[in-house]
Amino acid sequence: MLMRIGVIALVLVIFVVMAWFTSINPGEVPIDLAFGTVQPSIPLALAVTFVLGWVFGILSMTVYSLKQANERRRLRAALKKSESEVTSLRSLPIDNAD
Asked: What is the pLDDT of residues 19-28, one digit of tens each?
């Protein structure tokens, strides 16, 4: 419950800051994209940049998480194999007990 209130408060603060930033920066900024030039407003350019960075971060973390899950699966298989080998070695009779 407390976390939900914190998230709602954070979203509201971000919204208020975004509205304030939009009101004090009404200008446009030219962006050269190599195949053309666009002139979005400053808040729109920053919002698009923020969203693209967020998407790139999520994709990067997804790739990292998949690599970690694959390594974890591989290590579990190796552990299971080692445990079965140890169990089979323990059940062997001792020939030279002297």
From this structure: 888 888 888 9
